[in-house]
Design goal:
Radius of gyration of chain A: 24 Å
Distance between the termini of chain A: 39 Å
Largest interface: A-B, 35 and 28 residues
Shape of chain A: elongated
Structural class of chain A: alpha/beta
Radius of gyration of chain B: 19 Å
Largest sheet of chain B: none
Helix content of chain A: 25-40%
Largest sheet of chain A: 6 strands, mixed
Strand content of chain B: under 5%
Oligomer: heterodimer
Shape of chain B: globular
Helix content of chain B: over 70%
Number of helices of chain B: 9
């Protein structure tokens, strides 16, 4: 369980997080979304005790992070900035964390294998690619087999197979009743993984909803093409639907395609196309955060 | 605390820079010992003070290295961004500072032990060849002082590292203080006819632990002053670390 209660954080005159409240329930994966600079990383760092709140509070498993005993065994974290010494090998980086966290050293090789870094574990970190660094960060987060995962942009630098692995891993992790908060500025990246989304913009909460609701918002109008578009438009408008001509022979109707098809059939109008024009998840996201975007384009 | 301290030692052991410092300490110890024995006239080698000076000459650079390595083991965290991961494992920041001070003490002891082993080995063999009897009492006294001095130098270094946090700032600032600012203070205080006050300055305090035979503070006084400077730096380190946002 993660709880953020009226969190506010100021850096000098900059208000990074503004009276933000939300919670993440056990056994769920919650996407933490917002454009760059929305305050996601600051919030996550506040949850982890790295950033000190100006006001408000954050708790993990019912306690402030710094009050947790053996925190690496309770909470796994991946931060957006790389946090391993470049002169140390990946394996030694994890060995240090294992010793500090009271974690069996055998776990080091297990997590290295899990993130497919077994062979590279003995190499110094400064020679790692971006993807390898990200996987090392994930290995560090998973080292203590924690109940809670806080992952800041975990898909950064991962190849498609890595992203798929991460998605499957997080789903199986959540199915064991663990709590996962995962940030991203790309909704589509997490849409297939998360149960809920917390959307923030300029440090403020925009929405905290189930991902199904966001997907429902993406379901938009129906596009219909007919050689007798003018007559079809008349029929649709007379049926009380919001319909308009987009280009010659093509209409956009704010109604489900089944209803549009039935009206066309009852009027004997031939159709050449009947399709759903869905807004992309990104368009919905941009709309919710108030960023400029062209819905239904 | 034990596992956190063990993790700090593992951090040190798994970095080449630590072994670089150990190698430099080893080389400087060898050079200082060889220079002291080889550069002293035969008749002066029988002076009991001579073997005390052999150890001291080797100990001063090791104490300086202890101070610098103490700073590096804290400032490395901020320089390379590893501070975030360290604080996730050690979220109580007072405990983080305490562990770093312990690690500073351990590095100081380690570097000085290397130095003393090299010095003792070269000295014993060379003086044996020259038929100079070993003055174990003098050498042991110097070695114990050197060990205490290095431990406190490591602690002070770690505390300064925590207070300054910038690696370049801490290292350059310390070297400028030791080789420029503090000698200037000595000269200034001498001109003001309060030269004795200079013995209380940080580098003089550390130096006084190793060699308190020059009319300065006694050994206990030097230890007390070095502890006081370390306590001051630790308070600043606690203050800065506890308030710092790790972004």
């Amino acid at each position: 369980m993660i709880e953020v209660e009226r969190l506010t954080k100021r850096f000098g005159s900059t208000l990074a997080v503004d009276d933000l409240s939300f919670s993440v329930a056990p056994g769920t994966i919650t996407g933490f979304l917002g454009p760059n600079g929305a305050g996601k990383s600051t919030t996550m760092r506040a949850i982890l005790g790295l950033v000190l709140p100006t006001s408000g509070s954050t708790t993990v498993l019912g306690r402030r992070y710094r009050e947790l005993e053996m925190p690496l065994q309770r909470v796994g974290a991946l931060l957006e900035t790389f946090d391993a010494h470049p002169g140390r090998s990946g394996r030694n980086h994890l060995r240090v964390l294992a010793v500090a966290g009271g974690i069996p050293r055998s776990r080091v090789d297990e997590v290295l294998a899990l993130v497919d870094l077994g062979a590279a574990g003995k190499r110094r970190v400064k020679g790692y690619s971006l993807g390898m660094r990200q996987r090392l960060g994930l290995a560090a987060a998973l080292l203590g087999d924690p109940e809670v995962l806080v992952l800041d942009e975990p898909a950064n630098g991962l190849d498609p197979q890595g992203i798929r692995w991460l998605r499957d891993f997080l789903r199986s992790h959540a199915s064991e009743g663990r709590t996962i908060l995962i940030s991203s500025h790309v909704l589509a990246e997490v849409a297939q993984t998360v149960d809920d989304v917390v959307i923030i913009h300029r440090g403020k909460l925009v929405r905290h909803v189930a991902i199904a609701e966001v997907e429902a918002l993406a379901a938009g109008s129906t596009t219909v093409r007919s050689p007798d578009a003018d007559r079809l438009l008349e029929l649709l408008v007379s049926a009380g639907l919001d319909a308009r001509s987009v280009v010659e022979g093509r209409l956009e109707v704010m109604a489900p395609p089944e209803q549009v098809g039935e009206i066309a059939a009852s009027g004997g109008v031939v159709l050449h196309e009947l399709s759903v024009a869905r807004a992309t998840l990104e368009e919905v996201f941009l709309e919710l955060t108030g960023e400029p975007g062209e819905r239904g384009a | 605390m034990t596992r956190l301290f063990a993790a700090e030692l593992l951090k040190l052991r798994t970095l080449r820079s630590t072994w670089g410092f150990a190698l430099v300490a080893l080389l400087l110890a060898g050079l200082a010992t060889a220079g002291q024995i080889g550069g002293t006239q035969a008749q002066d080698r029988s002076d009991p003070e001579f073997q005390f000076r052999i150890v001291l000459d080797a100990a001063f650079p090791a104490a300086l290295l202890s101070l610098l390595l103490g700073m590096i083991l804290v400032t490395n965290e901020f320089r390379h961004g590893t501070i975030a991961r360290t604080l996730l494992a050690t979220p109580r920041r007072g405990r983080f500072v305490a562990i770093k001070l312990l690690a500073g003490a351990a590095t100081g002891a380690g570097l000085m032990l290397i130095t003393l082993v090299v010095t003792a080995s070269i000295g014993a063999v060379w003086l044996g060849i020259l038929d100079v009897p070993l003055e174990l009492g003098e050498a042991t006294d110097a070695a114990l002082r050197a060990l205490v001095g290095a431990v406190l130098a490591g602690v002070l270094g770690a505390a300064i590292g925590g207070a300054v946090q910038s690696q370049v700032g801490a290292l350059v600032g310390a070297l400028v203080w030791i080789f420029v600012a503090e000698p200037l203070c000595w000269a200034l205080l001498g001109l003001l006819d309060v030269g004795g006050a200079a013995e209380y300055l940080p580098a003089a305090s550390l130096g006084g632990i190793v060699d308190s035979g020059g009319g300065g503070l006694p050994f206990a006084g030097s230890v007390g002053m070095a502890l006081a400077w370390a306590a001051l730096a630790t308070m600043l380190a606690l203050l800065r670390t506890s308030r710092r946002d790790i972004t």
